[in-house]
Design a protein that fits this description.
This protein has about 210 residues and is mostly helical. The chain contains nine helices and no strands. Helix 5 packs across helix 9 and helix 8 runs antiparallel to helix 9.
Length: about 210
């Protein structure tokens, strides 16, 4: 990834993190203006970035070089979808759904484990697999919206700043494969009890 791409990715995550920190505090404090902004964000999930002036304050991003001038930039798309999905996730919840220390794939793994039945692949994992193999940003957001609804029902939040970074990276050349690998590595981490046992002799041990 080039330096400008790294800067853009970092900027997207920090922007979403800062905005959600303020918005989430206002929502949990039952601020009427914040409630109206959340409603507008939920409505805007199916709209293009920049089309709804009610949420410009929360989704606007300074212009950058990564797209044609008349089209939404990668940064605008990532911020717009991250903010709108958060609004869907947080609706009517009394606990924070933006959890800065929990990656998206970790939250999905927790949800998948809680819904697993025997040796069968859980419906959550199947939906996650559909998400990671999405052929477009639009398809990815569609599957993410379904998973966010399930996470909301389970009271499981995740880091929307990190997720915004992932949405940005996904749009770059070669980005889908990199994001897919990152999510796979996080989702597939073995629990401590399932990790292979080290059968090598400990240093300093002697043969019987």
């Amino acid at each position: 990834m080039t330096d400008p791409e790294l800067m853009n990715q970092s900027y997207v995550g920090r922007l979403v993190e800062a905005r959600l920190t303020r918005l989430q505090s206002s929502i949990l404090g039952d601020n009427s203006r914040a409630r109206a902004q959340m409603a507008a964000l939920r409505h805007a999930i199916s709209e293009p970035p920049g089309s709804n002036p009610e949420i410009w304050e929360l989704t606007a991003v300074p212009r950058d070089h990564d797209c044609e001038f008349d089209a939404p930039t990668y940064r605008e798309i990532a911020v717009h979808h991250a903010m709108c999905l958060y609004a869907i996730h947080q609706q009517s919840k009394s606990s924070p759904m933006h959890v800065a220390s929990r990656p998206f794939a970790t939250a999905i793994r927790k949800l998948s484990d809680s819904s697993a039945s025997g040796s069968e692949i859980s419906p959550v994992q199947r939906r996650f697999e559909a998400l990671v193999t999405s052929s477009s940003e639009r398809e990815l957001v569609h599957h993410a919206r379904g998973l966010v609804g399930q996470l909301r029902s389970a009271d499981l939040g995740f880091d929307y700043g990190g997720f915004a970074n992932d949405l940005y990276r996904y749009q770059l050349p070669g980005g889908p494969a990199k994001v897919r690998l990152q999510w796979a590595r996080i989702f597939s981490r073995l629990p401590q009890t399932e990790k292979p046992t080290d059968t090598t002799s400990k240093k300093g041990s002697t043969n019987a």
